[in-house]
Amino acid sequence: MSTTPTRVFAARLAGLPVFDPQGDQVGKVRDVVVVLRADVRQPRVVGLVIEVFGRRQIFAPMTRVTNIDPGQVITTGLLNMRRFERRTTESLVLGELLDRRVELVETGEIVTVLDVSMEQ
User: Fold this and answer.
1) 86: CB partners within 8 A, 6+ apart
2) How many Å apart are CA 108 and CA 63, to the nearest integer?
């Protein structure tokens, strides 16, 4: 990730073009994959779901993402083109978490999740 923005919001990534290091468009961001663990308070972002040409969705691990800038995501040149399949321990931020009503543990308050931020 680049050092310019320290916090990136998941909803703003939706639909952003994804480029390889040579500047060729690979696809578009469709979702953010997180792992929710009981022993850690914050979820961990493990990768992005990218829709490549032909409407196939693939998984791009965050280790392959080199920059997230306004208007684009840059990856390394190597991405596995196998179709994305969500594992049981993974959640999709845009598809499963946004617009959901949740109860805050500390206060018991019910809120609607409008966006989720992530940091490097």
Assistant:
1) 33, 92
2) 36
Q: What is the pLDDT along the chain (120 residues), one digit of tens a residue?
A: 445 557 888 888 999 999 999 999 999 999 999 998 777 777 889 999 999 988 899 999 999 999 998 899 999 978 889 999 999 989 998 888 777 777 777 788 887 777 778 877
**Are 75 and 26 in contact, with CB atoms under 8 Å apart?**
yes
**In angstroms, what CA-CA distances link 68 with 41, 42, 65, 86?**
24, 20, 8, 23
Q: How far apart are CA 48 and CA 92, in angstroms?
A: 9
61 neighbors 47 (Cβ within 8 angstroms)? yes
Q: What is the phi/psi pair of residue 12, to 5°?
A: -75, -15
Q: Is the pTM of this model over 0.90?
A: no
Contact 82, 67 (CB under 8 A): no
SS3 46: strand
* Residue in 86, 67, 79 with CA at minimum distance from that of residue 27: 79
